[in-house]
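USER: Study each token:
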Amino acid sequence: MVGSKDIPPRTEGVNTIILKSMCTKIKFPPKDTNLTSMVAIVTGASSGLGLECSRQMLSLGLSRLIIAVRSVERGEAAAANLRKAYPKAVVDVWTLEMESYQSIQDFAHRCETALVRLDIAILNAGLTQSKFGIVPSTGHERTIQVNYLSTMLLAILLLPILKEKTASSPGRMTIVNSGVSLTAKFPNHAQRPLLRSFDDTSITPWDPMERYYSSKLLGQLFFAKLADYIKADDVVVNIIEPGLIKGTGLHRDITGINGAIMAAFKAITARTLEEGAAVYIDAAIVKGKESHGCFLMDFDVKP
């Protein structure tokens, strides 16, 4: 399998890409897939794709699951159902606030000190925002903070832990991104300093959808460089587009006419939670070293 960097840029329009995605056959893991003895982390796993991905891994025999969540109460509610369905597995709920660098560092330190083994990390947490907002502790706009800065910090901190603590070789990390990065206009790309230009609406006017697109594009650009420093023999790391999914809270802050349009669009084109989580499983478990450093969309490597 060729890598993402070896493939020429896509020339299809967005509508064509969406149509192809709608027609893609969902690939569920082989029936003999077995995660016995393995330990996995899923961030943002109290609901939606993160929760469904967790359920699917437990159904494949995962021995220990760590649900990393902002709300311990919601996380424990989700974990209770998983424990009931899969009583042989250990399901833990750990706090992770993606708007706090301290919380991210504390979480990584806990992984380093409290876990004897860690095989899989799926970085799923992300958000969209209808209104402009700054994270007080960092001074950065919330969408850029969570989807880009915090996600990539967590990835950097977990990579050496995966390398050290996986009993299977190599460890696995899958970062959830989005194909909407292909449509980002990135209007402030020439601003310097770049990151600060996202924090000031007088420099970069607020557009919630464009901001989400830009946050995902930044993540892909950073990932493309990060992967150059990671050996596939240590940790296989890839980045994925799960497709448009029904039943997630991702677009809960989009209201009014935009919210109505999004709801109608999802009803026609979106995948189910089970289908979307299958994309996670394929990238984090089924795909091998050939997916290292790659952007995966519709179960295949894309540029």
